[in-house]
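Wed. Picked up where I left off yesterday with ABC transporter ATP-binding protein. The coffee machine is broken again, so keeping this brief.
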Amino acid sequence: MTLLKVTNLSKSFGGLRAVSSFNMAIEPGELVGLIGPNGAGKTTAFNLLTGVYDPTEGQIEIDGKNVVGLKPYQITQRGVARTFQNIRLFSELSVLDNVKIAYHFHVKYGLLETVLRLGRYHAEEESLDQKALRFLEIFQLAHRKDEIAKNLPYGEQRRLEIARALAAQPKLLLLDEPAAGMNPQETQQLMDMIRWIRKEFGLTILLIEHDMSLVMGVCERIYVLDYGSIIAQGTPAEIKNNPRVIEAYLGEEVH
Ligand SMILES: Nc1ncnc2c1ncn2[C@@H]1O[C@H](COP(=O)(O)OP(=O)(O)OP(=O)(O)O)[C@@H](O)[C@H]1O
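Structure written out below (tokens, as returned):
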């Protein structure tokens, strides 16, 4: 079954149609890119998919169920996790605690038990530590586990954000410019990591990215947004040679 189906999605801010009649279908296991010039509506589309904004019109289905109107945490519980263009960690907490907080969504003790530290809490807390550490190991951050998140170098904070999103055990992972601010070597490592986590966790990934080498290098299929509308979709090779895409990026006719 199609994992994410978006039909005729639109969002207006006053007179501005930031996203307009947006359609998208993503199958389980796909690695898909969403690209477009500055201000094209990419982040707005992510904010609609994750319940940050309610659409002006349209449908969003995850696993065949409508999620329009759900709160962001409810959408996380339906299996969608994301990272942000501007890193949003719990900056004063340790690296390990950042991942553990996300993992709490999937641990089966109730809030009362957490508060009173009763029942299953102690046993589960231990395995929670181990599970959180495993995510840190994947992202080569285990040696940093006790550091305060804000003290990590930038590239490591970006990796921690992805580790935290993964700890919520999503089916669909949305990455908003994961390579922003990274140098070419860090970007290359990130590409390898994205490919690896997709395979290892059987994930479906949708990513926004300005770095064309990353998008073309990891994505199997790409959607292109311009002024809120999808102007093209296809394989990296098709997108690279699509005149409408070239025009949107260069702002001029292609002859
Ligand atoms: N909360 C908001 N209120 C009003 N206008 C908004 C809001 N959020 C986004 N916009 C506008 O909607 C349009 C699309 O913005 P959006 O941030 O989604 O684009 P983007 O493709 O993610 O851009 P970038 O690549 O620069 O991050 C822009 O014109 C932007 O100014």
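Quick read: DSSP finds ten helices and ten strands in the chain.
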